[in-house]
Design goal:
It is a single chain. The radius of gyration is 21 Å and the shape is rod-shaped. Helices cover 63% and strands 17% of the residues. The protein has 5 helices and 5 strands; from the N terminus they run ββααβααββα. α2 crosses α4 and α3 crosses α4. A hairpin with a 2-residue loop joins β4 and β5. The strands form 2 sheets. The chain has a 3-stranded antiparallel β-sheet. It is of the alpha+beta class. The protein has a domain of 79 residues: Arc Repressor Mutant, subunit A (Orthogonal Bundle), CATH 1.10.10.
């Protein structure tokens, strides 16, 4: 696997799957916060930078990671770039997690069946 690490953020990894990129983006609290805020309304990158205790450049990098994961989109209006959350990507993450939930629920259901079988055999 080829990784290029810059400022403790993965900025280029062509070997990552779409799902890996999505969950990598959501793994950071600042990025999750940006996604949540931009669901409420569009924010310029300058506005976002004022909301967090980090540099404008750091916020730009977070937005780039979110954009690569398709969690946000950017649009230019004059000199400003505005960021908006992409609900389609969030639904993709939810769908992925739902598959795991279904898998674990089926395993738990099977464990319950085994326990009932064991109790029934033990009662005889």
């Amino acid at each position: 696997m080829m990784l290029l690490i810059y400022n403790h953020m993965v900025v280029d990894n062509r070997l990552q799957s779409r799902t890996d990129v999505l969950f990598h983006a959501l793994a950071d609290a600042t990025r999750r916060s940006i996604v949540e805020k931009t669901f409420q309304r569009d924010y310029s990158i300058s506005e976002l930078a004022r909301l967090y205790p980090m540099s404008f450049a750091a916020i730009q990098k977070h937005v780039v990671v979110l954009e690569r994961a398709e969690l946000v989109t950017k649009r230019r209006q004059g000199r400003e770039q505005f960021v908006r959350s992409n609900v389609v990507a969030i639904r993709r993450a939810e769908k992925y997690l739902r598959r795991y939930e279904e898998l674990w629920r089926s395993r738990i259901d099977r464990m319950e069946e085994i326990l009932v079988e064991d109790r029934t055999k033990g009662a005889k």
